[in-house]
């Protein structure tokens, strides 16, 4: 079966989350991804557990669930790139690949002769993607950083959580590492854009991605609200700043999300709850008016919505074409009939003999479908194979590298 990116080879020097997420996206699409890890320890996230993957005998491996989530489909090799011999191996591998992904602190790889300028001289077609906290330039460029920090610095946490005036109010981080995930996604399509340009120019290029930049980009329309109004947006919990009603309502049992995006849907919602007159009320007829009279409308809607359960309202709203949905826990997510139909939970084989439940790729391509091959690799599992077949090293040479602790 042909895969969309099976013609691409990727050298992944990244660790933790954003870089591995980017290279996993490429692996999902068929790219051959070689993940370079430190001998003996590997990627930091291998130790970010429990839980850990258990082998066929029920023993914990060095593969945490966190590591498994962002490294499937790759081939792990161990190289100490702080050594001259390790650096030379990387340079030889660079001759064989299309893409390099790294997330070292600014200047680290330059000291090793593994920066873009050095490696592009070896392989002018190389697309070199650098992911750092603050980017390659600017006063903060040398500083390290993690997702949580950038959620705060970008303003995202000023927009997330209950209002300060409510019990439990205050800044709140996302439930997942949203800055890492977003940066990884930006990296994936930036890499493909550079590959596409290479078809025209014949040359690769350097990609400079900053977690802070990507986090700021996520503020999107909230920043535009600020730019155009001069008013600093505040935390609003589960309500929308520009659309009403677009929020969570308490039901007799559970909570329902109502996402009314236009005036026609609002009229349908009014019919569904048995209050069609609301659609004619001058306070609520247009979204502009509903935003201005948000509090009044919320108080009116709270009364009928508390008369039925969340499941009952979902069924009623769906019949009236009102956008809505339940709030699931993760166990409920993977029992939903639509999620099951789309096959978003899959099982992948691991080298230990274990079968690993995994979240499938959401990408659906008609001619080159995503076909996940294997789970995240064991540390260094492909080292000998790649050094032999890709670089032509002999058994004695590999043995010597092992004895020196280079691999």
From TrEMBL:
It comes from Orrella daihaiensis. This is CoA transferase. InterPro entries: CoA-transferase_III_domain, CoA-Trfase_fam_III, CoA-Trfase_III_dom3_sf, CoA-Trfase_III_dom_1_sf. Keywords: Transferase. PANTHER family: SUCCINATE--HYDROXYMETHYLGLUTARATE COA-TRANSFERASE (PTHR48207). GO terms for molecular function: transferase activity. It comes from the Bacteria. The keyword Zinc-finger does not apply. The keyword Thylakoid does not apply. SUPFAM superfamilies: CoA-transferase family III (CaiB/BaiF). Pfam families: CoA_transf_3.
